[in-house]
Amino acid sequence: MGFAHFIARRILGDSERQDRLSRPIVLIAILGIVIGMAVMILTVGISTGFQGEVRAKVTGAGAHIEILPLAQGDGNTSARVRTAQPFYPWLDTVAGVDHIQVFALQPGIVETKDDIQGVVAKGVGADHDWEFLRAHLVAGAVLSVGDSVRSEVLISRWLSQRLRRSLGDDLTVYLIKGREDIRPRKYRIKGIYETGLEKVDHQLIYMDIAHIQRFAQWGVQAEIRVDGEAAGPGITVEGLGFGGDGRYSYDWPGTPLRGKGPHTLCVAGDTTLMMVLSDNGGTLPDTAWLHIRPSHAGREGRCLSYADAHIGRRTSGGSYKAYCGGFEVILKEGVDLTAMDDLIYREYLGVGLRTVTARQKFPEIFAWLELLDTNVVVVIVLMVLVAIINMTSALLIIILERTNMIGVLKALGSTNGTIRRIFLIDAAYIMGIGILAGDVLGIGLALLQQHFGLVRLPIESYYVNVVPVDLSIWPIAALNIGVLAVCVLALVVPSMYVSRIAPAKAIRFE
Fold it and tell me: pTM of this prediction?
């Protein structure tokens, strides 16, 4: 143990004079450091936890990055884009990408006997990640999206209270396309969620994406109509089309038939007729099939009439399912949003597509969260200044009380630097005690909040109903090291006071 360290410990451990003025001053300084450290730990923990919780809600209700067609201008109405893209679905194999899923948006109105409310219907596919909404369900279950299309919706608690609808009730939704095309659809409420985000809870209802694909008429659907009232031999068929831009082309491969019809066919045996429907808007075509066979033996070899034929019809279900409104990309935790957005846009998107980040969709929320960093810096600076002032006062009092000792040490040959180091070591010990006690207090209060949620918040204003705390070892360690280093360095100047003490006067000092 060095000389300066030995003397410093003897000064702190001196129990012979309990009436020293420095003792209450040192206790006050330690108490100030304890409170300051606890406040800083809670400030950093709450700020980090709050930012993480709100960001998780913003990205969980949507995604970190949305891939959209350039033609989409309204944020509440999706323009169609082909689901078959070079990046889908394998984009989740790229480092930093956790998941990719399809979605579509369509504005609508929900109606009850007493009230109406404007909403945005969000269609999701079988690949949708339900982890976030499952964690925020207050009743029921998430949607089951698969091969069969179900008339079920997921709504928020705010909407259920406003519309006086509960789990299992029917809900009429008027989907809106343009200014005149408004169609009612009846759904059953399967689940109720609450995120605390006004833009989500007050607007979004979740449904199977197939409802939006069909309503928006993104694809075409082919049908073959058979005229059962035609008299005489032959079977009369006519092509029908739905969806798309309405300007259809009818192709009957393997036959001389042209156009929509009606066409009268002479069918003498088992025959399969195919009709391909396309429009002039570049929509993927759809196919319908008609299988004709004699319904009674002995009818082969002559033109069958409608009454003599067994007719089976089949369609591919329309090309609606080949389109979606866009893609949601969920990133892994800790990945830089801006860097991944640049990478995806530059390396993986084709012509006609663009990206929109969560920061661009919710700029006011992210700006508000960034302001919290400023608040944290202000609190830390104020707490460090308080600690420096307290320690400066304590150090000067200790130096004044030890004036006689300083004179003796100088008379024995100690340099000013050695004596200053003695008092700086004393200050470091005092700071260390205060910092450790502050750690215990701050971490203890943070753990109580984490496990018991003692302090609660109005979710309508703060997006969370309990004050979140994120306790990470590295920020706490950085606070400890930073506060100790800054305060000890700041005490170098007041410690220079020892160089002004003359040994002859100091020895006679009482």
Answer: 0.79
